[in-house]
Amino acid sequence: MNNYKISRLGLQLILVHVIFWIMLVLPPFLFRYNAPPNRFTEYSLYRILISNAFLALLFYLNAFYFFPSIFKKRGLWIYLLVLIAAVAGMWFLSQYIDTELFPGKRKWNRSIFPNLISYIFILGTSCSYRIITDHLKLQKTNKERETENLKTELSFLRSQVSPHFMFNVLNNLVSLARKKSDKMEPALLQLSSLLRYMLYEGNHDRISLNQEINYLQGYIDLQKLRFGDDIDIDFTVEGNTNDFKLEPMLLIPFVENAFKHGMGTLLQPKIKIAMVVQNKNLNFKVENDVAPIGESKDASSGIGLNNIKRRLALLYGKLYSLEVKEENQKYKVDLNLEMHD
Predict the structure, then answer these.
(1) Does a structural domain hold residue 107?
(2) Which in 47, 140, 145, 328 has the greatest CB count within 10 A?
(3) What is the pLDDT of residues 251-280, one digit of tens each?
């Protein structure tokens, strides 16, 4: 696909050059065609072609050698001397062709000034062409560098999710081990499934929403094995989730945070997770009870929240909104995503 795009851009550039030279060469033919008989016989085919051949040579020499290699590296004065020498050489060579190869064709001596105007026009055009192409290349390079930096940052942010998740899950397993619970084996099996998802799906750019839902459900089931009936969890999904895609492990930090701060606060804390999909829009809400004022909170939750905010900003730009608030001992997250191509 990338090679196709490059070849397509190359063909477009060639087409632009062809159109430019056709527009430059064609007017003398049209002028000669409409001229009265026996007038402007100087505009013969060979002179038009030779004249424009010199102009084309000057254009490409300046655009691809004189301007980038001499002007940018050796300065303006050397560059001007080279241009003067090139223009003078081409003018004398064209004079030689007219007088030696085609004697008797010219009725009058050619002045340098009309040709000088053509040379100046071509030099100005080629300089403009080179400046514009260099600017576009620089923009492309900067964009590629920016994209690469964003990928690196996203990779780093995503890598932070896994250790954070593992720390929470291992706490669950330690709790079950201390109780010598018979739920230890299903918990390990559930953990194996989650790790498989992290290993194989977590490296993809985007996955289906159904895969992310299964991952969230697996994490919730693992937490239920630990807390049992001590917690009230309500997880609902509405809408068509088959066609929606998003980045992997994008929603789990909000659910982790709900369990972290929703436990140990009330006799039976509640966590409510609601997902609604409408066309290309996803609304994801998480609500949980929070610890009373004065109870210590894990500082890593702030790190996790900042992490996910940065990921959302990099991935979705203006295509998302996130509202996080705490009121009446309730911690509420309201995330809206618009699926992008």
Answers:
(1) yes
(2) 47
(3) 988 988 888 776 655 667 889 999 999 988
